[in-house]
Design goal:
3-stranded antiparallel beta sheet
Length: 150
C-alpha cells in the first residue's frame, strides 16, 4: 500500500479489524520510509450482474424476482427457496461474467430443483418451458421417472 504522505510503496500492518459483519476490513499501517501511520479500508466489491433476456433486452439482476419464481415452484414443499437463489447468485458472481442470459439462470434453477424436489422441479419447468399441452407435460414427467430409475 502506497504511503499517502511520502508515496513510498511499502508499509507494515499494525492492526487489523473486521467491520460490517466481516464484509470489510480496517487496517492500521505504518510507512517503512517515513514511519507515519495511516488507515486503509478493504471492502468486498460485488459486480453488478446484467441479465440478457430472450428478447435481447438487458436488465440488472433482481434477486427478489428470481426468489419469487422459485417460491412459487416450492410452495408447500420442503425446499429452501432462499438457499437455492443464494447458490445461484453466488455461482453467477463467481463466474466473473457480468452478463448472463436469462435462459442460463432458468437452467440453473431447474438443475437445483431437480436435485432437491421433483414436484418443485416440474412446477418450475411447466412455467419456464411453457408447456403447451398435456403431452409435453407427461413427456417431461416420463423423462424424470426414467432418470430416477437409473
Amino acid at each position: 500500500m502506497k504511503c499517502p504522505f511520502c508515496g513510498y510503496p511499502e508499509s507494515k500492518v499494525l492492526d487489523t479489524r473486521t467491520l460490517n459483519e466481516g464484509s470489510s476490513i480496517k487496517r492500521r499501517r505504518e510507512c517503512l520510509e517515513c514511519q507515519k501511520r495511516f488507515t486503509t479500508f478493504e471492502v468486498l466489491e460485488n459486480v453488478q450482474i446484467v441479465v440478457i433476456k430472450k428478447s435481447g433486452e438487458k436488465e440488472l439482476f433482481d434477486r427478489t424476482k428470481l426468489l419469487a419464481g422459485v417460491l412459487k415452484a416450492t410452495q408447500k414443499r420442503p425446499v429452501n427457496a432462499d438457499e437455492i437463489v443464494s447458490e445461484i447468485e453466488a455461482e453467477i458472481q463467481n463466474s466473473l461474467n457480468n452478463e448472463v442470459e436469462s435462459a442460463m439462470i432458468g437452467e440453473m434453477v431447474m438443475e437445483k430443483l431437480k436435485a432437491r424436489d421433483h414436484i418443485a422441479y416440474v412446477r418450475f419447468a411447466s412455467v419456464y418451458r411453457e408447456f403447451a399441452d398435456v403431452e409435453t407435460f407427461v413427456s417431461e414427467l416420463m423423462e424424470l421417472v426414467k432418470k430416477d430409475k437409473k
